[in-house]
Design goal:
- By secondary structure, this protein is of the alpha/beta class.
- It is built from 18 helices and 15 strands.
- The strands form three sheets. Strands 2-13-12-11-14-15 form a six-stranded parallel β-sheet, with helices on both faces. Strands 1-4-3-5-6 form a five-stranded mixed β-sheet, with helices on both faces.
- β14, α16 and β15 form a beta-alpha-beta unit.
- The protein is globular and about 60 Å long.
């Protein structure tokens, strides 16, 4: 087993009489919302869950992600990250080679050798993730047991965890879900006298995290933590006094693990756009007894800035018809934002998995005629897309180029994950992401016309 790193790296609560409009949690489907929700099962076009490493390694600053996989895995991550030749990011790939597959070398001994060499070179590391891939899962490498063994040897300096980033049965954002879920069992238990605290769950850009911290502090919510934290030693404690807000809609396993530890989820739409961010913050304000006038005073200015920044793109996007292929699990919140704040028409909203509880608030805010498709039969969906002739298609990279060749404008769904889009200050940036394909098409049209005439 050889470690293949990127270039130049390792080699080898609101009172009852409050007027805030806050959604309540329910296990039932929302009374309002889309009348048409259907499921499809067939061939899928999905991206690999290893991609989550690209944003997670930037978030947890003393963690390292060691993929146990093939050279294809190494090339995928390096290409997705766009690593510079002199950079030394905190991820690498331990290559499963012929000696491992033939049983000539003990794969666990080889993994131990690679890990020990890594720790010698990077003594600053405090958290090591062993990340499973399609190849490691196919040949049944037990990375969970390897992580326990290595943790026993390396603690207290380095903690080792394992999770799967395989693309066999998952979409690419589920890599983050698996990573955060692996952190939960090791979170410290809150003390019996611990005050009620708020945990924001989901990897956010540092600038976005700082903005949310300021808003919560201005509201008077004192005990706020984020999962994942920026450093391994700062991971939050958890228990029955923990209330948590999901910042991402694809954290199903993480949410389940948190609730098994006693945490309680606050129901809210996701913080995309001015409206979604306000509702998301209002859920925390209601739980922690923030007075309505204080909530309004804290959120009024940033909400108005967000509304103004979004309004700049309303004329360009209003009445445009948009079609979502299932890819990131962000499709339903994005559709709500585009429909309600930018006036776009939703032709079809595909999503890999529809968690009706987590998305209850989002579903209730969509037009009643919205078609939601859970799962995918890619051939049938392509047929529906071509027949509908939408103005914009949101899809994965594998479908984007063929659709562009047919004259259909596209937006890569992975860009919506790589770009900071949550919160008030990013609302305009989010709207701009959907306006760019139309700007590009407008700029290219004269050149295409000239080329066709010559």
């Amino acid at each position: 087993m050889n470690a293949v790193p990127p270039p130049a790296t390792l080699k080898s609560a609101m009172p009852a009489d409050s007027q805030l409009d806050v959604l309540s949690c329910t296990t039932a489907a929302p009374a309002a919302g889309p009348a048409i929700i259907q499921s499809e099962r067939g061939q899928r076009a999905v991206f690999c869950g290893l991609t989550g490493i690209v944003w997670l390694h930037r978030k947890i600053q003393d963690a390292f992600f060691l993929v146990v996989g093939s050279r294809t895995c190494a090339h995928l991550i390096q290409s997705a990250a766009g690593v510079m030749i002199f950079a030394e990011p905190r991820f690498a790939t331990a290559i499963i080679d012929e000696r491992d597959l033939a049983g000539i070398a003990d794969i666990n001994d080889e993994l131990d050798r690679v890990v020990n060499r890594l720790i010698e070179r990077r003594p600053d590391l405090k958290l090591l993730f062993l990340v499973g891939s399609c190849p490691s899962e196919v040949i049944k490498i037990d990375l969970s047991r390897a992580a326990l063994r290595l943790s026993r040897d390396l603690m207290p300096n380095v903690r080792v965890l394992a999770y799967s980033g395989s693309g066999i049965e998952t979409t690419f954002t589920q890599g983050e879900d698996a990573c955060l879920a692996s952190l939960v069992p090791g979170l410290a238990a809150e003390t019996a006298a611990a005050p009620k605290s708020l945990m924001v769950v989901g990897a956010l850009a540092d600038a976005v995290e700082d903005q949310f911290r300021r808003l919560f502090a201005d509201m008077g919510i004192a005990h706020v933590s984020f999962l994942p934290a920026r450093h391994a030693a700062d991971m939050p404690s958890i228990g029955p006094n923990t209330r948590y807000l999901l910042a991402q809609p694809f954290l199903t396993d993480t949410a389940r693990a948190l609730e098994e530890r006693g945490a309680v989820r606050l129901c809210a739409p996701f913080p995309l756009g001015a409206e979604g961010t306000t509702e998301w913050l209002a859920a925390a304000a209601a739980e922690f007894g923030v007075a309505p006038d204080r909530f309004e005073a804290v959120t009024d200015a940033p909400r108005q800035r967000a509304e103004r920044s979004v309004a700049r793109y309303h004329e360009r996007l209003s009445t445009k018809r948009i079609f979502f292929f299932p890819d990131s699990q962000l499709e339903v919140p994005m559709a709500r934002f585009l429909s309600r704040e930018l006036g776009m028409q939703l032709v079809e909203v595909g999503t890999p998995y529809l968690h009706r509880q987590h998305l209850a608030g989002e579903l209730a805010m969509l037009p009643s005629s919205t078609l939601i498709v859970e799962g995918q039969d890619v051939d049938q969906q392509l047929d529906r897309c071509r027949a509908a002739k939408p103005d914009l298609v949101v899809c994965g990279l594998g479908l984007a180029n063929p659709l562009e060749a047919e004259g259909i404008a596209t937006k890569w769904s992975i860009e919506l994950v790589f770009t900071p889009v949550q919160g008030y200050e990013q609302a305009g940036d989010l709207a701009e992401l959907f306006a760019r394909p139309f700007v590009r098409k407008q700029l290219l049209s004269p050149m295409l016309e000239d080329a066709s005439c010559s």
